[in-house]
Design goal:
mainly alpha; about 160 residues; elongated; about 0% strand; 9 helices
Length: about 160
């Protein structure tokens, strides 16, 4: 079994390598999806697919990329966050769809400033002021992620809760 997994990993890596060298993006995308079928737990093809769909502003397919990844890597905090971010990229943002993914990321990593920030932001929009403030204060206090901290402080100020 280990040999088959190693073989699949090698095949998937070869497809990813071939895809990133291509100039025909549609063929490259097909190869990347094939790589996710051959070795579904290999994160690399999902990252490239994510970059492709994000560059095309195809947020529906972007969400699908990371939804497939979390099936095989259910503890990948970044994959859960990326699904949430895909839904937040719609115009208008699909906050109700995004929130469960941020919750899952936060459940996996309760120190995730990004998850706390986004949950606080969504809860503020939904009128759950108490929970919003709780999560936003957590994000605002993260000195390791000044961008998230600043954004959280800005929302707290707008809420009159700084």
């Amino acid at each position: 079994m280990a040999c088959a997994q190693e073989s699949n990993a090698a095949k998937a890596h070869a497809l990813v390598d071939a895809a990133i060298k291509m100039t025909d993006s549609e063929k490259a995308v097909k190869l990347l999806w094939q790589a996710t079928d051959i070795d579904p737990s290999l994160e690399e093809p999902y990252v490239y697919l994510g970059m492709y769909y994000n560059s095309k502003q195809d947020f529906e397919d972007l969400a699908k990329v990371y939804q497939k990844l979390v099936k095989y890597q259910p503890t990948s905090v970044s994959a859960w966050l990326n699904i949430g971010e895909a839904y937040m990229s719609f115009t208008p943002p699909k906050t109700k769809e995004a929130l469960p993914y941020y919750r899952k990321a936060y459940e996996l990593d309760s120190h995730s400033s990004m998850a706390a920030l986004r949950m606080g932001e969504i809860m503020a929009q939904e009128g759950d002021r108490e929970q919003a403030i709780r999560y936003l204060h957590q994000a605002a206090g993260d000195h390791a992620n000044p961008t998230y901290a600043a954004e959280a402080r800005k929302i707290l100020t707008q809420m009159g809760a700084s």
